[in-house]
Hints:
alpha+beta; three-stranded antiparallel beta sheet
Amino acid sequence: YxxxxxxxxxxxECNKIGVNLIHIWEDDWLYxxxxxxxIILNKIGKSNRIFARNCSIEELDNKISKSFLxxxxxxxxxxxxIKIGLFYNGELVSVMTFGKLRKSLGSKSIDGSWEMVRFSNxxxxxxxxxxxxxxxxxxxxxxxxxxxxxSDSSRGNGNLYNKLGFKFVHDTDVNYYWIIDGIRKHRxxxxxxxxxxxxxxxxxxxxxxxxxxxxxxxxDCGSKKWEMIF
Length: 230
C-alpha cells in the first residue's frame, strides 16, 4: 500500500550520499536465498575468484543454459536464441545470453539489433574478465549493429555495463508485479486482454479485475537501459 515510487525514492536518496542500496524482495529471500547471499558476497568482495583467461568458451543448448540460469540468476531463465558459457576445469561457471528485441519491453525486432538478456556467474563465484570475454565472443561471431540491455535498479547502478563499454540511455519507469501465492509474477501475463480471454469482465480494468480476485501488486525500482552501437 505504498506509493508506487516508494522503493525507487529510497534508492535515489541513498545514491545521493554514495550508498548502494540493495533491495531484497520477500519471495527472493524465501525461495532464492542462496542467490541473494551470493549477490551480497560478490558486492563486498567475498566471492571465490576465477580468471576468465583460464576458462574455455562454448555455445550452449537450451537445456544446459536454462538449468544454469534457473539455479544461479535471481530472475531465472529467459528465452534467448544465443547462449554462451565459460567452463573452468570442465564445469560451467558463467553464462551470457542474447535474443532479438522483446515486444514485452516495448521493442520491435530489427535486423542486427540484439538484447543481452541474461548474464550470471555460478553462485559464490566471481569470474574476473568473464563478462568481457563472453561479450567479445558474441560481437566477433554475430557482428551486431547494436546491443541493448537492462540493469535492475533495485540491485545496483549497472557498473558492469560501463565496464563493457555500453552507454547509459535512461532510467525506465517503475514496473509492477502481481503477488500470486506469495510470489511476484510479471504483469505481462496478466494484461487485460489475457484476463478477458479467461472470462473476466471486459468493462473492468486489469487492476480492477485482479483486485476483485484478491491479488495485490508491488512496484520495483525500475531499470537502467544501456546500449552499444557498432
